[in-house]
Amino acid sequence: MPDPRLAAAPPPEERRRALRSALATLVPGWQPLAQDVLGADARIDWVGRDGEGRCVIALVGRAGHDLALIAEGLAQRDWVAARVSDWAQLAPQAGLRPGADVVTVLLAPQFRPSAVAAARAAAGPALRLAVLRFIENGTGVAPLIEPVANPRDPAALDRWDSAGFRSGLSAADLDLTPEEHAELEDRNEI
Asked: pTM score, two decimals?
Protein backbone atom coordinates (compact mmCIF):
# COMPACT_ATOMS: atom_id res chain seq x y z
CA MET A 1 0.00 0.00 0.00
CA PRO A 2 1.50 3.38 -0.99
CA ASP A 3 2.23 6.00 1.63
CA PRO A 4 -0.51 8.58 2.09
CA ARG A 5 0.17 11.92 0.42
CA LEU A 6 -1.63 15.23 0.32
CA ALA A 7 -4.16 15.52 -2.47
CA ALA A 8 -6.16 18.34 -3.98
CA ALA A 9 -9.56 18.93 -2.44
CA PRO A 10 -12.23 17.00 -4.32
CA PRO A 11 -15.29 18.69 -5.86
CA PRO A 12 -17.90 19.89 -3.32
CA GLU A 13 -20.25 16.89 -3.61
CA GLU A 14 -17.43 14.36 -3.18
CA ARG A 15 -16.00 16.45 -0.31
CA ARG A 16 -19.38 16.39 1.48
CA ARG A 17 -19.58 12.60 1.08
CA ALA A 18 -16.09 12.23 2.52
CA LEU A 19 -16.94 14.42 5.49
CA ARG A 20 -20.24 12.68 6.30
CA SER A 21 -18.75 10.40 8.93
CA ALA A 22 -15.40 12.18 9.40
CA LEU A 23 -17.10 15.06 11.26
CA ALA A 24 -17.50 12.65 14.19
CA THR A 25 -13.83 13.35 14.99
CA LEU A 26 -14.84 16.93 15.89
CA VAL A 27 -18.42 16.46 17.09
CA PRO A 28 -19.07 13.76 19.70
CA GLY A 29 -22.22 11.85 18.84
CA TRP A 30 -22.35 13.36 15.32
CA GLN A 31 -25.53 12.50 13.42
CA PRO A 32 -25.77 14.03 9.93
CA LEU A 33 -29.27 15.23 9.04
CA ALA A 34 -28.89 17.13 5.75
CA GLN A 35 -26.20 18.34 3.39
CA ASP A 36 -25.91 21.33 1.07
CA VAL A 37 -28.78 23.17 2.81
CA LEU A 38 -29.74 26.69 1.75
CA GLY A 39 -29.11 28.96 4.72
CA ALA A 40 -28.66 32.71 5.07
CA ASP A 41 -27.94 33.60 1.42
CA ALA A 42 -25.51 30.69 1.01
CA ARG A 43 -25.30 26.92 1.30
CA ILE A 44 -24.48 25.10 4.55
CA ASP A 45 -22.35 22.04 3.85
CA TRP A 46 -23.78 19.98 6.72
CA VAL A 47 -26.58 20.22 9.26
CA GLY A 48 -26.67 17.58 11.95
CA ARG A 49 -26.82 17.11 15.67
CA ASP A 50 -24.39 16.13 18.37
CA GLY A 51 -24.82 13.56 21.13
CA GLU A 52 -26.54 16.15 23.34
CA GLY A 53 -29.19 17.03 20.75
CA ARG A 54 -27.66 20.38 19.79
CA CYS A 55 -27.95 21.41 16.16
CA VAL A 56 -24.56 21.36 14.44
CA ILE A 57 -23.68 23.18 11.23
CA ALA A 58 -20.45 22.62 9.32
CA LEU A 59 -19.04 24.93 6.66
CA VAL A 60 -16.01 24.29 4.47
CA GLY A 61 -13.98 27.29 3.31
CA ARG A 62 -11.34 27.83 0.67
CA ALA A 63 -7.69 28.64 1.14
CA GLY A 64 -7.16 32.31 1.92
CA HIS A 65 -10.82 32.88 2.82
CA ASP A 66 -10.64 31.96 6.50
CA LEU A 67 -11.82 35.38 7.74
CA ALA A 68 -14.77 35.28 5.34
CA LEU A 69 -15.53 31.77 6.63
CA ILE A 70 -15.69 33.10 10.21
CA ALA A 71 -18.20 35.77 9.13
CA GLU A 72 -20.22 33.23 7.14
CA GLY A 73 -20.24 30.84 10.10
CA LEU A 74 -21.60 33.54 12.40
CA ALA A 75 -24.32 34.51 9.91
CA GLN A 76 -25.34 30.90 9.36
CA ARG A 77 -25.30 30.14 13.10
CA ASP A 78 -27.71 33.02 13.70
CA TRP A 79 -29.95 31.98 10.79
CA VAL A 80 -30.10 28.34 11.93
CA ALA A 81 -30.67 29.23 15.60
CA ALA A 82 -33.88 31.03 14.61
CA ARG A 83 -35.15 27.85 12.91
CA VAL A 84 -34.17 24.96 15.20
CA SER A 85 -37.46 25.03 17.12
CA ASP A 86 -39.41 24.73 13.87
CA TRP A 87 -37.15 21.97 12.57
CA ALA A 88 -37.59 20.05 15.84
CA GLN A 89 -41.37 20.20 15.37
CA LEU A 90 -41.22 19.22 11.70
CA ALA A 91 -38.85 16.30 12.30
CA PRO A 92 -39.05 15.16 15.94
CA GLN A 93 -37.17 11.96 15.02
CA ALA A 94 -34.08 14.11 14.29
CA GLY A 95 -33.57 14.57 18.02
CA LEU A 96 -32.82 18.30 17.90
CA ARG A 97 -33.07 20.10 21.23
CA PRO A 98 -34.82 23.47 20.76
CA GLY A 99 -33.27 26.34 22.68
CA ALA A 100 -29.80 24.78 22.77
CA ASP A 101 -26.84 26.62 21.26
CA VAL A 102 -26.03 25.87 17.63
CA VAL A 103 -22.61 24.26 17.35
CA THR A 104 -20.66 25.75 14.44
CA VAL A 105 -17.79 23.82 12.88
CA LEU A 106 -15.63 25.66 10.36
CA LEU A 107 -13.14 23.77 8.22
CA ALA A 108 -10.52 25.33 5.95
CA PRO A 109 -7.05 24.53 4.60
CA GLN A 110 -5.61 26.98 7.14
CA PHE A 111 -6.62 29.48 9.81
CA ARG A 112 -4.38 32.50 10.14
CA PRO A 113 -3.90 34.09 13.57
CA SER A 114 -6.26 36.93 12.58
CA ALA A 115 -9.04 34.40 11.84
CA VAL A 116 -8.45 32.63 15.17
CA ALA A 117 -8.61 36.04 16.88
CA ALA A 118 -11.88 36.86 15.09
CA ALA A 119 -13.39 33.53 16.14
CA ARG A 120 -12.22 34.15 19.68
CA ALA A 121 -13.81 37.61 19.79
CA ALA A 122 -17.17 36.49 18.39
CA ALA A 123 -20.09 36.63 20.80
CA GLY A 124 -22.12 33.52 21.48
CA PRO A 125 -21.00 29.91 21.61
CA ALA A 126 -17.42 29.23 20.56
CA LEU A 127 -16.77 28.38 16.94
CA ARG A 128 -14.94 25.09 16.38
CA LEU A 129 -12.14 25.53 13.86
CA ALA A 130 -10.34 22.70 12.09
CA VAL A 131 -7.79 22.51 9.33
CA LEU A 132 -9.09 20.31 6.51
CA ARG A 133 -6.83 18.63 4.01
CA PHE A 134 -7.28 15.57 1.86
CA ILE A 135 -4.91 12.65 1.53
CA GLU A 136 -4.65 10.04 -1.18
CA ASN A 137 -4.10 6.67 0.45
CA GLY A 138 -4.11 4.26 -2.48
CA THR A 139 -7.81 3.44 -2.14
CA GLY A 140 -9.05 6.97 -2.74
CA VAL A 141 -9.11 10.41 -1.20
CA ALA A 142 -9.89 10.78 2.50
CA PRO A 143 -10.24 13.87 4.71
CA LEU A 144 -7.55 14.72 7.23
CA ILE A 145 -9.04 16.92 9.98
CA GLU A 146 -6.85 18.69 12.54
CA PRO A 147 -8.67 20.71 15.21
CA VAL A 148 -7.36 24.19 15.89
CA ALA A 149 -7.03 25.07 19.56
CA ASN A 150 -10.24 26.43 21.06
CA PRO A 151 -10.31 30.03 19.82
CA ARG A 152 -11.68 31.14 23.21
CA ASP A 153 -8.55 29.78 24.87
CA PRO A 154 -6.03 32.63 25.20
CA ALA A 155 -3.23 30.10 24.64
CA ALA A 156 -4.47 29.67 21.06
CA LEU A 157 -3.14 33.13 20.28
CA ASP A 158 -0.40 33.30 22.90
CA ARG A 159 1.52 30.53 21.16
CA TRP A 160 1.70 32.78 18.10
CA ASP A 161 2.43 36.00 19.94
CA SER A 162 5.14 34.51 22.15
CA ALA A 163 7.03 32.87 19.28
CA GLY A 164 9.43 35.55 18.16
CA PHE A 165 11.91 35.25 15.32
CA ARG A 166 15.48 36.50 15.21
CA SER A 167 14.20 39.45 13.20
CA GLY A 168 12.03 40.49 16.14
CA LEU A 169 8.87 39.68 14.23
CA SER A 170 6.32 37.20 15.53
CA ALA A 171 4.49 34.44 13.65
CA ALA A 172 1.42 36.70 13.69
CA ASP A 173 3.41 39.52 12.04
CA LEU A 174 4.42 37.12 9.29
CA ASP A 175 0.88 35.69 8.95
CA LEU A 176 2.23 32.13 9.18
CA THR A 177 -0.03 29.10 9.24
CA PRO A 178 0.41 26.65 12.15
CA GLU A 179 2.14 24.27 9.73
CA GLU A 180 4.60 26.90 8.52
CA HIS A 181 5.34 27.87 12.11
CA ALA A 182 5.91 24.22 13.11
CA GLU A 183 8.18 23.68 10.10
CA LEU A 184 10.34 26.65 11.11
CA GLU A 185 10.45 25.38 14.70
CA ASP A 186 11.55 21.94 13.45
CA ARG A 187 14.37 23.55 11.47
CA ASN A 188 15.36 25.66 14.52
CA GLU A 189 14.89 28.87 12.59
CA ILE A 190 13.08 30.77 15.34
From this structure: 0.77
